[in-house]
Design a protein that fits this description.
48% helix, T2SS_E_N_sf, two-stranded antiparallel sheet, four-stranded antiparallel sheet, alpha+beta, 223 residues
Length: 223
Amino acid sequence: MYRFRLSSDQVQLELVANGNSALLPFQVIGPTTEVAFLEELIEESLGSLTLNPRELFGFLGSDPWVKGAFQAPQVVEGDLNAAASTETSFQRQTLGRKLEQAGVLDIEELEQLLVDYRPFAETQRFGEFLRLNLQVPPQMLDLLLNPALFDEQGFNEKRLGERLVEMGCITPEQLDQALDLQRSKGGRVGELLAELGFISTTTARFFSLAKVNEKGQIDYQAG
């Protein structure tokens, strides 16, 4: 069994899970408003409340919004050293980290957006903030937050250029320009789009390799 405690001057929450497997379903216990806030934050950032205990505890100790609302998390019960470790998948990254790995934001842009977001953290999720402020193409946010929807639309079968146009990363005209260049000099479309300055090489790699798996999650290993 694992029990983690988050405390502030006003409230105390506990995250509880039974079992010793690599992934455990955690339940948040405490006042309704704070429980809903933390559950939504964890699900948006890590994709689920079924998590590796060590991974969850690390998130609670490092997430800026958790740190802004609570003191450092405590292990009330359970041995984190004995918790089975699992390789951190793309799906379990925070939304900001996903956007960075996809080449949509660089680290400096992400850090500035997190600073800008802080005054709204109690009323908006980070994804809502980005959507309302048009900082990221809405299609990109939809893909990262609800990849199963794109699986239904045949995401895995689409070519790189089609994916990039659909995500709002490039225009159809920019794709045509890259395809014309490919016909004249050869090369990969993603590399040519980056060479033309339309996308970053990171974005080209992400959309070349990312797949939606049978669980409706994104499979991707950053290089």
